[in-house]
Amino acid sequence: MLPPGSTIGILGGGQLGRMMAVAALQLGYRVVGYAPAGDNVAAEACSDFITADWDDAAALEAFAAACDVVTWEFENVPVSTVAAIPEALLPCPPRALEVAQDRLNEKAFAADLGGTPAPYAKVESAADLAAAIAAIGTPGILKTARDGYDGKGQWRVRSAIEAGAVAYPGVTCIYEGFVTYETEFSVILVRGRDGAVKFWDSTANMHEGGMLSRSVLPAGALVEAQVGEARQLAAKVAEGLGYVGVLTLEFFATRDGPVFNEMAPRVHNSGHWTIEGAATSQFENHIRAIAGLPLGGTKTRFEAIEMRNIVGEDALKAHAILAEPGEPHLHLYGKAEAREGRKMGHVTRVGHAVR
Ligand code: AMP
Which pTM does this prediction carry? Predict the structure, then answer.
């Protein structure tokens, strides 16, 4: 167990790191963040924050020297950056990042463990793209294999006619058949250093423009019927990776069962409701797991919960939400610029307490 006063290092400087840092502070830890220059909103919650490039060996060495344990809040931290941190400081092996950073890898990894991804093909040229569309059909989605997030680096191919207009973007991609689903849902688990796993309830997730907009509980009968199978896969993935901390898998609930979409080796936007809505939040349990502390319960505390993202300029008038009935819980991330499509905060509304 990491003693109070120890220092937790977080790679990445976004809102996930900010909420993780708050949880760490509450447990009596110090937090040092590390990220390249940018709007690093986690810095305000850290005792110290190192702004340096991912490949700055001297800065990484200073960061590691200041930390007792190192984790990440961003799945695209280069694997070489994590490899520069002494292994003894890493409760979770960097293999999780390696797998999750590449859509082809993560789909193959999940499929090997019995998961069902959408039909997909690797695309490395214009000819591959034409062959993939011919084999898998339309509608489908072309996605960059790496570095995509929140619907960025994705092109929908609605019909064979439209296919002609989609150019190969010049980087390795994946072409996926479009899944007809009723609901999207996520499985969020925490795995301790001893291998014990706990799951939070799965929310139904709604997206707008490829980006999460809302997560709600209860998630509905179809999700509830499929969550057991999805959890089994998530537990196998966590075990296969030797994972420690919070891990997220996203699924489509279809008439034929859960279809695996992607994994995030970190706390997740669809788990923000756990701050007020669960016995222990995803952020706190992530810190507890990497610090070797006993994990907290994950039970949902209310009969109904809705988490809604606050995006772009809506954040400028978000304080007005506090006057609404039902005691909404507002979280703003302190981002400097309310750019269109940018996650600025979230609001969680809860219903009656579970008896
Ligand atoms: P991703 O970045 O893979 O999570 O994709 C972002 C969102 O786009 C997903 O949450 C879905 O709403 C949608 N999407 C992605 N892939 C597919 C697919 N193969 N079939 C249907 N919808 C998809």
Answer: 0.97
